[in-house]
Amino acid sequence: AQTVTQSQPEMSVQEAETVTLSCTYDTSESDYYLFWYKQPPSRQMILVIRQEAYKQQNATENRFSVNFQKAAKSFSLKISDSQLGDAAMYFCALTGNTPLVFGKGTRLSVIA
Amino acid sequence: DAMVIQNPRYQVTQFGKPVTLSCSQTLNHNVMYWYQQKSSQAPKLLFHYYDKDFNNEADTPDNFQSRRPNTSFCFLDIRSPGLGDAAMYLCATSRDSSRWVADNEQFFGPGTRLTVL
Q1: Among residues B85, B89, B52, which one has the least CA distance to residue B67?
Q2: How many angstroms separate the CA of residue A18 from the nearest CA in chain B?
Q3: Contact B25, B4 (CB under 8 A)
Q4: pLDDT tens digits, one per residue of A50-83
Q5: What is the C-alpha radius of gyration for chain A, rounded to an integer number of angstroms?
Q6: What residues in A contact B109, CB-CB < 8 Å?
Q7: What gap in Å lies between CA A14 and CA A71, rounded to an integer?
């Protein structure tokens, strides 16, 4: 079975600062994808960033980057220059031979 | 814009009264998913369709059924809603579901919040 663990139920960050959200996972698959999804309050879930497990280079998307440690099965999300619009629930997710498995989420607050 | 649409956004039903939630997509994706998300929890996959092939998750209650009459539409039927079925129901689509292709990104609709009285 595939599992995803997010150990930080809530995080907060000052506007313009950097924050890192943690995620660990477990899978027996050798090929899989990892995702971070953002779910703002009362708004739909959108993909933030994606990492293919076979790629060693960490994915980046503008202010969002990941630290992918395959051996440690760790996949953290770094948000740089945090903005008020980054406040949301963030879900780490994994897909291998099954559809997405989500972690329980981390609620990020951004303080002005 | 290509998108995933869910109607209605809010649905109120009575205990035991059947209810249907709908999802449509203009992305022409092969795969459509239904998730249940309870407050402050992760989305839980109920089932998904790969084209017309239906895939039910092992722990999805029999009370939940789904129909996909064509590529664009997918319905979630709750035959006898209980108080525990009150939740946000999310529809999502992806071009493919295989880990071997890059087209497995899921696009989500805004959700339907179901209240059971």
Answers
A1: B52
A2: 24
A3: yes
A4: 998 888 899 999 999 999 999 999 999 999 999 9
A5: 13
A6: 44
A7: 32
How far apart are alpha carbons B112 and B38 in whole angstroms? 12
Among residues A34, A48, A59, A55, the alpha carbon closest in space to that of A89 is found at A48
d(C-alpha A92, C-alpha B5), whole Å? 24
A44 closest CB neighbour out of B48, B99, B110: B110
- Which tokens sit at B63? 């009370």
Per-residue pLDDT of chain B in tens (117 residues, 90 and over written 9) = 669 999 899 999 999 999 999 999 999 999 999 999 998 888 999 999 999 989 888 889 999 999 999 999 999 999 999 999 999 999 999 987 665 555 578 899 999 999 999
CA atoms within 13 A of residue B99's CA, in its CB half-sphere: 18
Phi and psi dihedrals of B5, rounded to 5?
A: -120, 135
Phi, psi of B80 (to 5 degrees): -145, 80
CA distance B76 to A12: 36
Residues B106/A100, Cβ–Cβ less than 8 Å: yes
